[in-house]
């Protein structure tokens, strides 16, 4: 074996030997297939590189030692040094001669490693090997920070329009009041200027013109106005100063979508060309747009300068961008006109590129994985960034001291984007109170009285959250709040509970104004419910809280959440409202989301001066039937109390209390069928089949009765489920995306068993059957042997005493004995002729025996043509395909499929009225019939199999669809989890397989029994006919 790295260098060593005496013996402690790369014995590994701070860069020599050996630094250099120490090798960095040379060295194996991370892309995997990932791919982009253009409206912005209006109203009001309070002597002059100067002048921070008023009421009003003017003036100047010093910057471009939407040009350096090629071949419109706009610049300096001067974006590695901006485009005070966008451009991970088929990749991966586990990669990244920033500040400080100049504008601290809150009416409550005391107090009393009920409800909801979150403490739960436009409550109080433990909270406020129910439903569906549904899919458990006193809003929420399939039984819904009981009952009874799902209403209607809230739920199945019940209450005195043995968010479907559940069906043996004996009498319909047996067991466990709706046709069955006239169709259906939009499904029953049946291929009579027992090569060898034997015997007869024998005699000897005839004439006297004839007789006996045996076998056990057993075989036959009408949705799905096989099936599909009509077309027109596998087997056994068990049909081996089947349920069926639990138990107990076997055996037995009775009745009728004179 060759060992490339040993203490003595690369060499070929003998690791073992084998001998008869000692067997297999290892030599010098070696092992078979020894590990070559756990120890490099101090040998050198070539590495290629390029300057890429902060990952790998060359350290400049110091002034004290300018001739020192080249040194390197950086995060990835630290990683490589740690690996080299662990594997005992030294690193030899090849001199940097350009980007192309760096990668060519890897391809040609002049170097093994490029210890600088690179995104692991499919086109790069075709060229290099990669180590285990170092970190996520961090390709980003940098742009110039957006700035603000001066505007004359800046003097107007510090106050909102409502505030300006209220100030104008106060000015007019005070002016009128002061005019009315003037002395009688001044009223006669009708001069308004002194009063106007008092009002407007003091508002503009001027002194009161003239002397102070003598009237006490006027002094009180003027004093209040001075206080108001002081407050307004101070707030205006403060907000104006804040607005001018902390302006509102335009939004930055932070994502790839923003960058493409901005329509800006993009620059990068030549070493990104591989990414550009990958983007051009991508199916993403964003990446294609990115590749179309990109321009190559020689250096990063040119790219960043164009970003500052021309508004372009510069694409490169994120940390490298931050380091280069900090080093070359940042002032001593930390100001830079550039920023690096928040989002990465390329998803995925980075690793070190290696030369193709690097044998010690696993050793490198082992070390890198250990570094990840110890947190060393993050530690080294942090250290090199801190060191780089320190070196950058020291270089700028040194350069500033050398120049002797200050950096003026560059030292200005950047003000990050902050939304400045303008002065609102809330801030004006103090000044306005001096003039609108009565109105403000009456308004405050009104708000207090109207919000008191909501306050009670919030306190009750907080207590309810504490109680329910105790149960769910071990799970990561989220809370979603949906508020209407009029809700003014603060939900943060509810979220402050020590038991809240929420994995996330989202608040949706639906703003639609006073619109009709239809428009509000549309607004909920398009703006809120789709967002809530997406968040629900990302959460382990969810509680949805709806707050509104508007019945149309709550009704619209119920419809939208139902249409969007927002609620599962595991999703808890709490509705906080103060509606009257009749409206509340109507909502609980009329809407699916409130009546059937895990919903509870918390009503904040106070009772006889008690701060009390009530909790109501709708129980669709109870001993008293469907009803709205009170399950608990909350009061300031007693807290949260459950009532009458109920729990909060009670379980509704563990016991149906013998109430009826509608079931829709269609005849589909052996899964579900009506018993024939009841078809001929007026007795109540009775059913059988595997699906019915499973449903009976579930009904007994959940204590409900089964009401099987009459079968009319397939479309009615479908509409019964969609419109919720029936909850369950206990006949399996393939779980396909098209069907999941229409129905819910139980847990899978079994694999999807859609198959097809065709007629068994037969053999047509053929004169060539006599040649079939032997292959053509065997026939050729027999003919050759006959000729050879004839020639040899002719030659032997001509050289002996039988020279005058005729040719015919030899022919009869050779061909006759081959055909099992006796030897004609006398036996030959010559020994050689006898030996030859004996050998020929043995050959003739063997060939004749083999031929007769094979001929008998081929006639009694013929070789039938190959059957079509797969979908590909079926398409290859070119046969037409018959289907029943209930397969129309499958055909539509096949047409939309990308599979050529499914498209071919949809093009050849023809619908037939019944199974018998389809099988007749299969028998007479050589078509295929597609339907459920076990159903076809049962019907073939019942209608197309004789008493001896023969049928001209067969069901193909392979299923057409991949996937699983379940029972279709009505949309948002709330007790789906209960059905799933029992189906899981059936799987665990092997009951589904057992019931399948039983119903198939029963179907076969019934078929044979019917055929036997039919034959007996036929024979009796024939006997009666014979006796008739």
From TrEMBL:
<keyword id="KW-1003">Cell membrane</keyword>
<protein>
    <recommendedName>
        <fullName>Ionotropic glutamate receptor C-terminal domain-containing protein</fullName>
    </recommendedName>
</protein>
<feature type="transmembrane region" description="Helical">
    <location>
        <begin position="430"/>
        <end position="447"/>
    </location>
</feature>
<keyword id="KW-0472">Membrane</keyword>
<feature type="transmembrane region" description="Helical">
    <location>
        <begin position="163"/>
        <end position="181"/>
    </location>
</feature>
<dbReference type="Pfam" id="PF00060">
    <property type="entry name" value="Lig_chan"/>
</dbReference>
<keyword id="KW-0675">Receptor</keyword>
<keyword id="KW-0812">Transmembrane</keyword>
<keyword id="KW-0325">Glycoprotein</keyword>
<feature type="region of interest" description="Disordered">
    <location>
        <begin position="1005"/>
        <end position="1029"/>
    </location>
</feature>
<feature type="domain" description="Ionotropic glutamate receptor C-terminal">
    <location>
        <begin position="162"/>
        <end position="436"/>
    </location>
</feature>
<feature type="compositionally biased region" description="Basic and acidic residues">
    <location>
        <begin position="1005"/>
        <end position="1016"/>
    </location>
</feature>
<dbReference type="InterPro" id="IPR052192">
    <property type="entry name" value="Insect_Ionotropic_Sensory_Rcpt"/>
</dbReference>
<dbReference type="GO" id="GO:0050906">
    <property type="term" value="P:detection of stimulus involved in sensory perception"/>
</dbReference>
<dbReference type="GO" id="GO:0005886">
    <property type="term" value="C:plasma membrane"/>
</dbReference>
<comment type="similarity">
    <text>Belongs to the glutamate-gated ion channel (TC 1.A.10.1) family.</text>
</comment>
<feature type="domain" description="Ionotropic glutamate receptor C-terminal">
    <location>
        <begin position="782"/>
        <end position="927"/>
    </location>
</feature>
<dbReference type="GO" id="GO:0015276">
    <property type="term" value="F:ligand-gated monoatomic ion channel activity"/>
</dbReference>
<dbReference type="InterPro" id="IPR001320">
    <property type="entry name" value="Iontro_rcpt_C"/>
</dbReference>
<keyword id="KW-1133">Transmembrane helix</keyword>
């Amino acid at each position: 074996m060759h060992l490339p790295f040993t203490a003595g260098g690369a060499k070929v060593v003998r690791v073992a030997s084998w001998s008869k005496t000692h067997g297999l013996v290892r030599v010098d402690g070696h092992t078979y297939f020894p590990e070559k790369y756990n120890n490099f014995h101090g040998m050198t590994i070539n590495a290629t590189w390029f300057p890429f701070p902060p990952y790998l860069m060359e350290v400049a020599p110091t002034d004290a030692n300018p001739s020192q050996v080249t040194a390197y630094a950086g995060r990835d250099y630290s990683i490589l040094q740690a690996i080299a120490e662990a594997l005992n090798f030294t690193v030899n960095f090849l001199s940097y001669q350009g980007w192309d040379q760096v990668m060519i060295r890897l391809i040609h194996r002049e170097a093994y490693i490029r210890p600088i991370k690179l995104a692991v892309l499919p086109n790069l995997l075709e060229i290099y090997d990669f180590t285990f990932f170092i970190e996520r791919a961090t390709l980003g982009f940098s742009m110039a920070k957006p700035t603000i253009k001066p505007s004359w409206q800046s003097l107007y912005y510090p106050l909102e329009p409502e505030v300006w209006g209220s100030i104008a109203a106060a000015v007019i009001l005070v002016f009128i009041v002061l005019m009315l309070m003037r002395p009688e002597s001044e009223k006669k002059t009708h001069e308004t200027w002194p009063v106007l100067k008092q009002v407007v002048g003091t508002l503009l921070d001027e002194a009161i013109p003239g002397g102070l008023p003598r009237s006490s009421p006027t002094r009180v009003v003027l004093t209040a106005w001075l206080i108001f003017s002081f407050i307004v003036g101070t707030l205006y100047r403060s907000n104006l100063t804040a607005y001018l010093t902390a302006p509102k910057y335009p939004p930055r471009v932070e994502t790839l979508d923003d960058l493409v939407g901005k329509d800006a040009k993009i620059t990068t350096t030549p070493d990104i060309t591989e990414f550009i090629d990958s983007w051009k071949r991508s199916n993403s419109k964003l990446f294609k747009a990115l590749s179309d706009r990109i321009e190559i610049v020689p250096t990063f300096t040119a790219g960043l300068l164009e970003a500052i001067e021309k508004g372009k974006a510069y694409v490169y590695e994120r940390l490298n961008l931050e380091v280069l901006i900090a080093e070359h485009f940042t002032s001593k005070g930390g100001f830079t006109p550039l920023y690096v966008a928040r989002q990465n451009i390329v998803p995925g991970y980075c690793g070190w590129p290696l030369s193709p088929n690097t044998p010690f990749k696993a050793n490198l991966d082992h070390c890198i994985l250990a570094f990840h586990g110890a947190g060393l990669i993050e530690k080294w990244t942090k250290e090199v960034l801190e060191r780089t920033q320190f070196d950058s500040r020291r270089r700028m400080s040194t350069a500033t001291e050398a120049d002797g100049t200050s950096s003026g504008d560059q030292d200005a601290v950047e003000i990050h984007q902050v939304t400045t809150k303008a002065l609102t009416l809330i801030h004006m409550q103090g000044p306005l109170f001096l003039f609108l005391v009565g109105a403000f107090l009456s308004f405050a009393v009104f708000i207090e009285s109207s919000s008191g009920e909501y306050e009670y409800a919030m306190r009750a909801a907080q207590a309810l959250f504490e109680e329910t979150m105790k149960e769910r403490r071990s799970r990561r739960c989220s809370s979603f709040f949906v508020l209407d436009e009029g809700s003014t409550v603060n939900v943060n109080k509810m979220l402050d509970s020590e038991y809240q433990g929420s994995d996330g909270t989202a608040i949706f406020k639906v703003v639609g104004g006073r619109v009709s129910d239809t428009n509000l439903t549309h607004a909920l569906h398009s703006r809120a419910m789709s967002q809530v549904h997406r968040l629900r899919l990302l959460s382990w458990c969810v509680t949805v809280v709806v707050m509104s006193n508007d019945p149309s809003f709550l009704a619209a929420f119920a419809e939208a959440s139902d249409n969007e399939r927002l609620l599962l039984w595991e999703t808890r819904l709490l509705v906080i409202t103060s509606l009257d009981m009749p409206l509340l009952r109507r909502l609980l009874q009329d809407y699916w989301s409130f009546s059937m799902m895990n919903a509870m209403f918390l009503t904040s209607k106070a009772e006889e001066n008690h701060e009390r809230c009530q909790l109501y739920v709708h129980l669709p199945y109870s001993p008293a039937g469907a009803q709205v019940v009170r399950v608990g209450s909350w009061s300031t005195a007693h807290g949260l109390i459950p009532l009458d043995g109920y729990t909060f968010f009670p379980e509704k479907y563990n016991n149906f209390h013998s109430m009826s559940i509608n079931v829709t069906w269609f005849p589909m043996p052996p899964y579900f069928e009506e018993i024939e004996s009841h078809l001929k009498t007026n007795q109540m319909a009775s059913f059988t089949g595997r699906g019915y047996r499973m449903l009976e067991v579930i009904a007994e466990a959940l204590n409900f009765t089964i009401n099987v709706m009459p079968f009319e046709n397939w479309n009615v069955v479908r509409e019964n489920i969609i419109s919720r006239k029936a909850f369950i169709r206990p006949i399996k259906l393939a779980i396909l995306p098209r069907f999941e939009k229409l129905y819910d499904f139980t847990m899978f029953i079994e694999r999807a068993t859609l198959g097809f049946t065709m007629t068994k291929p037969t053999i047509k009579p053929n004169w060539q059957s006599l040649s079939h027992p032997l292959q053509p090569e065997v026939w050729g060898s027999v003919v050759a042997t006959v000729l050879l034997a004839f020639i040899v015997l002719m030659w032997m007869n001509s050289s002996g005493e039988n020279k005058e024998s005729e040719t015919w005699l030899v022919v009869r000897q050779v061909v006759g004995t081959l055909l099992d005839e006796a030897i004609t004439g006398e036996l030959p006297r010559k020994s050689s002729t006898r030996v030859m004839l004996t050998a020929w007789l043995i050959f003739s006996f063997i060939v004749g025996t083999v031929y007769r045996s094979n001929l008998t076998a081929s006639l009694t056990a013929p070789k039938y043509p190959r059957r079509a057993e797969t979908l590909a075989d079926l398409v290859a036959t070119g046969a037409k395909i018959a289907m029943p009408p209930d397969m129309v949705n499958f055909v539509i799905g096949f047409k939309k499929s990308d599979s050529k096989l499914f498209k071919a099936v949809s093009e050849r599909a023809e619908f037939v009225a019944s199974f018998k009509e389809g099988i007749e077309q299969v028998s007479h027109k050589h078509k295929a019939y597609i339907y459920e596998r076990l159903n076809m087997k049962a019907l073939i056994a019942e209608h197309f199999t004789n008493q001896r068990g023969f049928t001209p049909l067969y069901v193909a081996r392979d299923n057409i669809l991949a996937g699983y089947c379940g029972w279709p349920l009505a949309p948002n069926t709330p007790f789906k989890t209960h059905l799933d639990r029992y189906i899981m138990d059936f799987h665990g107990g092997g009951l589904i397989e057992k019931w399948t076997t039983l119903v198939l055996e029963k179907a076969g037995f019934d078929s044979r029994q019917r055929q036997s009775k039919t034959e007996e009745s036929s024979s009796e009728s024939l006997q009666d006919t014979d006796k008739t004179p």
